[in-house]
Specification:
two-stranded antiparallel sheet; 60% helix; 6 helices; 252 residues; five-stranded parallel sheet
Length: 252
């Protein structure tokens, strides 16, 4: 991180905020493109200072999140994780439908406990049906497993990187304090804003394409109607000509 350090003061590294701002903007542009392409971003932050912010900003931007503990294999063994997610969703459906009430108290208690446990680990990604387009991580040291898995499967990583981390492990590092709540909230909020912007851009493009398709459909329908009218007029004319010919034959 030496290249991102502005100075040292009383044994504390002072990060160059000019570089932070520039790299934050670059990361935001990338996240916007990811969201605009229809892909999802997973917000990852399990340290105490980051949990609340990660949850709130991910929910605000309709993104996925991991705030309790990153389970090994979440990306590298996605098929197995997907089975656990499907099991969680089915359990929730059973509880919502009242199926738990038809079980014995002991069985219902066990299923409730399992539901709580699964939601603790998978609640933020239970609707994940395919690999994400990117990860946003707070503290790559604590979330080393998540970073390693993302690198292994080729998923880009955006991260708030402190002076004790290796930015070379990250595709889009954002130099900053990953221990301060205000710093985490600021960067996570910017990432959420980028996701929202990308999503809005995608929805706008889809609306424009739908409008164009509708206009083309109307034009095709009008053209077909015009062709039918011309054909009908031609048929009527042919019928009239035939009638005139018949009249002439009768006169003759």
């Amino acid at each position: 991180m030496r290249q991102y350090i502005f100075s040292h003061r009383n044994g504390i590294h002072i990060i160059d905020l000019q570089q932070t701002l520039k790299m934050l903007e670059t990361a935001k542009e990338f996240v916007t493109e990811v969201a605009a392409s229809g892909q999802k971003v997973i917000f990852v932050g399990t340290k105490k200072q980051a949990q609340d912010t990660i949850i709130s900003e991910a929910q605000r931007s309709n993104s996925f999140f991991v705030s309790t503990r990153w389970l090994g294999g979440t990306l590298t063994n996605f098929k197995t994780i997907q089975q656990r997610l499907d099991h969680l969703v089915k359990l929730e459906e059973r509880k919502t439908s009242g199926d738990f009430q038809r079980l014995s108290k002991l069985e219902a208690l066990h299923l409730d406990e399992e539901l709580i446990r699964l939601n603790r680990f998978f609640g933020g990604i239970k609707e994940l049906t395919k690999m994400p387009g990117a990860l946003f991580v707070v503290d790559i040291g604590k979330e080393a497993i998540a970073v390693q898995e993302a690198r292994r499967v080729g998923i880009p990583v955006i991260a708030l990187v402190d002076s004790d981390s290796d930015p070379n492990l990250i595709d889009y590092p954002i130099p900053g304090n990953d221990d301060a709540i205000r710093s985490i909230r600021l960067v996570a909020g910017q990432m959420a804003d980028a996701v929202i912007e990308g999503t809005n851009r995608r929805e706008s493009m889809e609306a424009e394409l739908a409008a164009e398709a509708s206009e083309k459909a109307v034009a095709v329908a009008e053209k077909a109607k015009a062709v039918e009218e011309v054909a009908a007029e031609s048929t009527e004319q042919d019928a009239a000509d035939t009638s005139d010919d018949n009249d002439e034959e009768l006169v003759d």
